[in-house]
Structures are given as structure tokens and as C-alpha cells.
């Protein structure tokens, strides 16, 4: 998909701001759709499957944090948060919960459009794109529909016996293999129905790493000290 075909969903309760952002995105050759509240944002995200979500924190019905958590539970759609507070805690919270970038109001709409293009370029360059329900990262092939993972050993594929949680964690990391996912994000995305603690993620990923090593894949997933995990050594 070229950048000219990319669709950006603008979740913003102020129509004037949404119109301005849409106009600047159009100048960059990007299409846009608009959601007026958090619930509508989730509905349109599911229906339209946008390439990126511009998400205001202060939204009616469901706020931006709730929308961010749900979109991350669903998958890896790139998200740029829009916040009215230039505070480190808001920025860190956005990144920790899985946002790809953030901008602070009042903002320059041209800069926002440039940030959108940058995030789209980065996420597409990172590879691991979902093609027909398949993810491929290095020697790993992940079948999202059959819940099956195989390793290319050079002499043929070797199937891995993974638990559902291990599969979910691996698939989540594989969607953007160079992006570091925090333990909190992995917990929300892969164990949403449980009340597990973040250290539970470490335990599951340790078992996953051991199974990958037994199949000849060394050092994956990569642990980034104090941050989280990714699936490529250069992350």
C-alpha cells in the first residue's frame, strides 16, 4: 500500500480541529475519517481498519486511554496520542500503554501530518506485515488463523508446541518486531481476561524463549532492560 492510499482515523471531539487535521493530511496525500467520541472511534477502527489512529486523550463516552487499551488489545494499529497536557507523566503513560508517538495541544497541524507520515514509514519498514493471516519474522512463520508457529530449520519447517498465551505474545511481538512492547502492554493485549501481574509476562516469555532455543532460534524474544520486549535483535 502506498502512502497515498493510507487511511488515518481522527478521533477528536472538536469538529474544527478534526477538519483542520483532515485538510493537512489530504495535502500529504492521506485519506482520513473522523470519530466524535471514543465509542465511535472503536466502531470505526473495527469497520475501516485504518492504517493509523490519531487519538485525542480527552474524548466523551470513552476517553483516549480506554480507546488506546482496547485498540492495543485488538492488534497493532499505529497510534499517535493527542494530549492537552505537556507533562512527562502523560507522555510516558501514552508510550507505556502502546502509543507510537504523541503531540501536545496547541499543535502545528503541518507537524502532526509529518509525524503521521513518519510513523507510517517506520511501521511499514519494520516488516512483519500480516499477509493472508500469516506473519513472517526471520525463520518464524506464524499462522494467525490456525494458531500454528513453525521454524525454518534449513532442512524443513519445525512446528512449535506453544500454549495459547505464548502464541498470543509471539504474534503480538511479530506484528512490529523492532518495536519494544512494555510488560503492561503485553499483559493487556495477550492476557486481557486475567488478573495476572506484569511479572507473569516474564514467565511466559521465558518459556517461549526456551522453546524457540530448542528449535534453533537463539536469543528471542529480546529483553530490553527496564522497558519490555521485542522480537528483533536490533530493537
Please sum up the structure shown:
This protein has 235 residues and is an alpha/beta fold. The chain is built from eight helices and twelve strands.
Question: What does this molecule look like?
Answer:
This protein has 235 residues and is α/β, with parallel strands linked by helices. It folds into two domains: 3-125, 3-Layer(aba) Sandwich (Rossmann fold), CATH 3.40.50.2300; 134-230, Orthogonal Bundle (Arc Repressor Mutant, subunit A), CATH 1.10.10.10. Helices cover 42% and strands 21% of the residues. It contains eight helices and twelve strands. It has helices at residues 15-27, 38-48, 64-74, 88-96, 109-125, 164-175, 183-190, 198-214, and strands at 7-11, 31-35, 52-56, 79-83, 101-104, 134-137, 140-143, 148-152, 157-160, 181-182, 222-224, 228-230. The strands form three sheets. The chain has a five-stranded parallel sheet with strand order 2-1-3-4-5, sandwiched between helices. The protein has a four-stranded antiparallel sheet with strand order 6-7-8-9, covered by helices on one side. A three-stranded antiparallel sheet has the order 10-12-11. Strand 8 (148-152) and strand 9 (157-160) form a beta hairpin. Helix 1 packs across helix 5 (109-125), helix 2 (38-48) runs parallel beside helix 3 and helix 7 crosses helix 8.
Amino acid at each position: 500500500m502506498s502512502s497515498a492510499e493510507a487511511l488515518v482515523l481522527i478521533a477528536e471531539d472538536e469538529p474544527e480541529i478534526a477538519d483542520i487535521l483532515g485538510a493537512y493530511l489530504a495535502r500529504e496525500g492521506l485519506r482520513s475519517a473522523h470519530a466524535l467520541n471514543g465509542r465511535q472511534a472503536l466502531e470505526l477502527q473495527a469497520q475501516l481498519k485504518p492504517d493509523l489512529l490519531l487519538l485525542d486523550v480527552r474524548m466523551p463516552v470513552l476517553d483516549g486511554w480506554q480507546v488506546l487499551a482496547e485498540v492495543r488489545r485488538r492488534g497493532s494499529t499505529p497510534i499517535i496520542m493527542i494530549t492537552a497536557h505537556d507533562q512527562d507523566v502523560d507522555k510516558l503513560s501514552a508510550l507505556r500503554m502502546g502509543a507510537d508517538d504523541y503531540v501536545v495541544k496547541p499543535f502545528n497541524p503541518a507537524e502532526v501530518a509529518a509525524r503521521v507520515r513518519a510513523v507510517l514509514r517506520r511501521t511499514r519498514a519494520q516488516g512483519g506485515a500480516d499477509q493472508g493471516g500469516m506473519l513472517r519474522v526471520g525463520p518464524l512463520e506464524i499462522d494467525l488463523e490456525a494458531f500454528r508457529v513453525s521454524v525454518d530449520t534449513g532442512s524443513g519447517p519445525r512446528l512449535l508446541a506453544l500454549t495459547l498465551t505464548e502464541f498470543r505474545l509471539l504474534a503480538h511481538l511479530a506484528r512490529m518486531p523492532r518495536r519494544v512492547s512494555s510488560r503492561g502492554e503485553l499483559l493487556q493485549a495477550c492476557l486481557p481476561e486475567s488478573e495476572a501481574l506484569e511479572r507473569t509476562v516474564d514467565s511466559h516469555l521465558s518459556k517461549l524463549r526456551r522453546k524457540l532455543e530448542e528449535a534453533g532460534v537463539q536469543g528471542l524474544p529480546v529483553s530490553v532492560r527496564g522497558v519490555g520486549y521485542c522480537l528483533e535483535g536490533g530493537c
